[in-house]
């Protein structure tokens, strides 16, 4: 994985997100033994050769693991929509950058609903160290005009 991330960086990637899709299958103690150590090895290896490459960690359903995720050494912890972003910010602290965490289902709502959810998320995330994003990928069948609206609203935010 580290070799692949380095290849992506050498090919022009400006940031890389690492997915640990099985993290939620593990208890916190098992996550520490069977995942955390290996994620840290990946991050450490990449940072040796690409120290300025931002690394983002996404672990779906990671509410029970939040405080452990920064121990990997990543630059950003990505939150899915099952974690209240204000609580995630509180638990991770102001020095940890976060990404997320709008429910992809929001994009099936009205433009007003999408706009309100974006502003609410940004406000709850606090000033700085937040990358606005969905809490997971776009769902098949999502109206394209709603995705475009998401980006237009996001680009216009100035807090």
Provide the spatial order of strands within the biggest beta sheet. 1-2-3-4-5
**Tally of structural domains:** 2
> How much helix, percentage-wise, in residues?
40-55%
Query: Which residue ranges are poorly predicted, with pLDDT under 50 across at least 5 consecutive positions?
Result: none
What overall geometry do the principal axes of the alpha carbons give? globular
Number of helices: 5
Report the strand count. 5
Report, as a whole number of angstroms, the end-to-end distance. 37 Å
What class would the helix/strand composition place it in? alpha/beta
Whole-number radius of gyration?
16 Å
Mean pLDDT: 94
Largest sheet: 5 strands, parallel
Helix and strand pattern: HEHEEHEHEH
Structural overview:
This protein has 159 residues and is an alpha/beta fold. It has two domains: 1-74; 99-159, no CATH class. The protein has five helices and five strands. Strands 1-2-3-4-5 form a five-stranded parallel β-sheet. Helix 4 (111-125) packs across helix 5. The chain is globular and about 45 Å long. The N and C termini lie far apart (37 Å). The model has no long low-confidence stretch (mean pLDDT 94). It comes from Thalictrum thalictroides (Rue-anemone).
